[in-house]
Design a protein that fits this description.
single chain, 19 helices, nine-stranded mixed beta sheet, alpha+beta, elongated, 38% helix, two-stranded antiparallel ribbon
Length: 525
Amino acid sequence: MPDLIITNKPDLISLSDLSNKDIETLQELQMLFEKEIMDFRNPFQVIFCMSSVLIVCILAKLCGYTTSEEIEVFWENNLKWIEDHLFFMQGVAPCADTISYVLKNINHDQLQRLVLLRFAERYSLAEIIPGFDEEFSVLGFRILDADGQTVTSTNRSNKNKNGKRCGGFDIVTIMDASTKAALIQLIVDKKNQEATSILKMLTDISLDGAILTFDAINTRLALLTAIVMKGGHYFCNLKLNQKNAYEEAITSFEILDNILDTKIAPTSWEGHKHAAFASSTQNTGSETVDKELIALPASDVFSSEVLAKWKDANLQTVIRVNTKRYNKASGQMECGDLYFITDLPIIPDNCESKSTAKLNKVKNGRAKEFLTISSLKWSVETMHQHLDNPKITNQDNHRIFNKQLLAGHTILNKFALNILKEVQKVSVVMHKDGLTYRDDRLPVTQLVYKADRAENAFSYLRFYFTGDKDGLRNMGICPPLPTVIEHQHENTEAGCFTFVSEEDKGFSLAQIFADGGGRAKRYKS
């Protein structure tokens, strides 16, 4: 790893705008924090600067130290290293109250715009999934998930003291499902404020080329209309909170099922001619999941009254996803249907072909894309599980009743998780047999466990900004660089590996390295 620039003169680092790739040292990140984030504390009483506290909090959270008290312990344990790598240090670690005071008295809007929105921009472009017609594909769009998460430890007795509990703080988050990165959050007092919160957060997010997904509780005309007006698209659940539309959707798909079973179509309904189909099967160690998707144009499903209600939302397509889960151990089968609505048409507007074969290919390709989007929709739930995991950030047990302090902690929790997710993409699992496989990645809990001190946490942070893997290689998270063997080994069987050294054996025998990506070379006779 290149040596860090250690200096006690902050004027040596320019305060000009820094791009993400310009951030190679903690001092540069510290200067960026000082420039972009406002500190509301009294400047004449400040002992520990805001940027130092924020950076140490990020490093601590990457190592699994989440609360202010734990961050104080982390600071004391890594005091010498922190003193050597940051400006404006005092030679001692601040107490937990000081850390909490800093996190509470900063501009949280500026903090999350910087560490969530701005830092995630470099990873925000989703790649088009191969296998689809790129001319009409929507999978090049960003898939954004919005959902709320209640911090249950913030539940408290109400003022009437009648034995009931008040609901805790609810954190509404929008994340990029393609990059698994949280983009923005808003803390509210009640669970039923999600739709209003999403509307507020849309003012800070560009929806150009984006598809926003969310639960049925937020499927409201005002929100859908706002998404369309901002140039975005929506893909959301439909349930009983929209009773008339939900019942008409169930009826239409039941008619289609009867047509498919009997192959006899009613003369007055043309929906079966416009339907698009897709299916997928996923096998895991314990269960098999089969999904079947059917998409119908909204004009074939809903009555004129329902279509008139959703006119401003530009409703185009209604989708049903049937999921069957077969448990291999118990032999039990679970089935269920989910309904979705979207403003994305089954046949794109720019498709001018009149060929039936071409139209069927486009329809079924779009149906496969809808199936992919319906799966990506649950990425936000995975993020919530990671945030609540006691071995990662343990956010659900944050007993913080001050909304500003909770905002400071949770924004940094999400930033730390964004970093861990990026590190996870290049990590490698070492199996007992010494093999490594292309799709195996270390779980986030293992990444937190390996970052046991500030130096290792900085390796994560450095990789996030610069892509430098040297620190990760030293930690054994990703494979070492390949070593070139210049001489030809004799008596080597075709298709066999020749190891460079004993160290390389742990990273050999996998196809990913056999094809030139690892530290072993395949010799041919």
